[in-house]
Design goal:
It contains twelve helices and seven strands. It is of the alpha/beta class. The protein folds into two domains: 192 residues, Rossmann fold; 84 residues, no CATH class. This is Erythromycin esterase family protein.
């Protein structure tokens, strides 16, 4: 497992450098899976395209959905021109291979796509469709309220109660229509609605469990923020995904972090002898502008 991180999301120099590294790894080595810090279900839509199962994709609708809270707050993550070019490149690469590279998400940052998908399993049941619509409206208002009231709103009782309400409605829907076929939609929704009022805020541990299921003892490239990839057992907050990955994969986990610096250089770090051992390799790239966003039409 090779993880390629970035110090800050949506910076052109970091995105360009990361894509260059990924292409090199994919071209020169046997890579089975590219896993990203993005929605499980939206990544599945992208995978159907890069694997040739579908013939077209509407990028300005799909890419922003990889992180719906960012989309609602007007922040960018993967909805950029470079990501479109990379996906097209991966599709072309896969077209020449019998064994396709899988594009997968291990984060749970979209609720609209799984909710819309679950409505197809309701068989027109009014109560189920009402509950699903209520969940979507509740979650959307909760995320948007961060813009109005600031990040501290997530610690208020009323804000947390909205997620408990959504979770209650989701449990009702799950009892009515759950099946192996639609389990992927429930998985992302349950993780999203369970996250916010958990005392330990277990996002990294949940992403680790998702990534562990994805890996299946295959060769995986992991894309996430440097923070999540760091092996940092002394960190005072919730345990980071990178710490879980180091414990689980041992020497089979390599973490590469990308950072901005005026003077580009490569600094190799040996975790056994260097005090700062959170990342195995740190690559410094020149500082640059933010990426050019693509917008929903």
């Amino acid at each position: 497992m090779i993880a390629v991180g970035e110090e800050t999301h949506f910076k052109k120099s970091l995105v360009d450098a990361r894509i260059k590294i990924i292409k090199e790894l994919v071209t020169e080595h046997q890579i089975d899976i590219i896993a990203i810090e993005g929605s499980i279900n939206v990544s599945h839509i992208i995978n159907e395209y890069v694997s040739g199962q579908t013939q077209s994709i509407i990028f300005h609708e799909v890419l922003p959905g990889l992180n719906e809270p960012y989309l609602l707050q007007g922040a960018g993550l993967y909805d950029c021109e470079q990501m479109i070019e990379f996906i097209e490149w991966l599709r072309e690469f896969n077209s020449k291979r019998k064994n396709k590279i899988t594009f997968a998400g291990f984060d749970f940052q979209n609720f609209s796509v799984p909710i819309d998908s679950l409505q197809k399993y309701s068989n027109g049941d009014i109560e189920i469709n009402y509950k699903l619509s209520s969940i979507q409206t509740t979650l959307r208002k909760s995320i948007l309220s961060i813009l109005d009231s600031g990040i501290n709103v997530i610690a208020t009782r009323n804000w947390l109660e909205t997620f408990r309400s959504a979770r209650k409605d989701l449990k009702y829907v799950e009892r009515q229509i759950f099946s192996d076929e639609n389990a992927i939609f429930f998985d992302e929704l349950k993780q999203f609605t369970n996250l916010w009022d958990a005392p330990s805020f277990p996002r990294d541990s949940l992403m680790f469990e998702n990534l562990k299921k994805i890996s299946r003892n295959e060769n995986v490239i992991v894309l996430a923020a440097n923070y999540h990839l760091e092996n940092d057992p002394l960190f005072k907050g919730p345990k980071k995904m990178g710490t879980f990955l180091r414990e689980y994969f041992n020497e089979n986990y390599l973490a590469i972090g990308l950072k901005e610096d005026q003077n580009s250089a490569i600094r190799l770090k040996n975790p056994k002898i260097v005090d700062d051992k959170k990342l195995d390799i740190v690559i410094f790239v020149s500082q640059g502008e933010k990426c050019n966003r693509i917008y929903r039409k």
